Amino acid sequence: MEAVCFLTELHVKGRNNYWKVRQAVETAKETLYSFDQLKTNKSEPRRPLRKMVFNVPTRRELTSGERAIQHGLAIASGIKAAKDLGNMPRTSATRPISPLRRASWRIPGAKTSSPRVIGEQQMRELGMNSYLAVGNGSQNESLMSVIEYKGNPAEDARPIVLVGKGLTFDSGGISIKPAEGMDEMKYDMCGAAAVYGVMRMVAELQLPLNVIGVLAGCENMPGGRAYRPATS
């Protein structure tokens, strides 16, 4: 199925054609998003949308419209990546921390990004004891993925630093949380997922900025080594 979008012809006060096309692209991608990576038998829609055309008022708007589509697709790709990370299961079989570790390996389309992973030993050397305490009760190693994007070669260019909370599952530790809503505790890592999505956007758009993304990943579980609140 092919479709033509005329939302771009609506008058929006203070907004130009570029903005309207980009918003339309992002909205379309948002509407069509579906997390089906774990389905064995994926059912295709009877009439899948294969092409969408965004209408612009004049030919003079074609260049800005094409740029808006490119930017909108890059932003939507980052949002999808963040959602996919958030929707992944947190079972022991899939190693709850693994998605954040894999996320740090490579940012597609980025020639100037270099990832690294800080493990527990290095965290101890850095004195990150409070951070390590959160993951003490888990059998899975805590880690911190650091992604650096260098789009500005100037020596005095300061980076923008984004830090995302990546608690892959927050049971509450020994202060166990109520059963109601416990299944949603896997979404405590969505801060880190959002940072990962932003890093993908920045890289795909090749922005002239220096950006550092920190994905702080650990798992808060009850256990014999779990953190104990201080008592007087």
UniProtKB/TrEMBL annotation:
GO cellular component: cytoplasm
UniProt-listed GO biological process terms: proteolysis
GO molecular function, one term: manganese ion binding
Protein origin, superkingdom: Bacteria
InterPro entries in the cross-refs: Leucine_aapep/pepB, Macro_dom-like, Peptidase_M17_C, Peptidase_M17_N
Pfam families according to UniProt: Peptidase_M17, Peptidase_M17_N
Domain Cytosol aminopeptidase: 82-229
UniProt cross-references to Gene3D superfamilies, sorted A to Z: Leucine Aminopeptidase, subunit E, domain 1, Zn peptidases
All residue ranges annotated as the Peptidase M17 leucyl aminopeptidase N-terminal domain in the record: 2-42
Entry keywords, A to Z: Aminopeptidase, Hydrolase, Manganese, Protease
Entry's EC annotation: 3.4.11.1
Similarity annotation: Belongs to the peptidase M17 family.
Name the UniProt record assigns to this protein: Cytosol aminopeptidase
Organism placement in taxonomy: Bacteria, Pseudomonadati, Pseudomonadota, Gammaproteobacteria, Enterobacterales
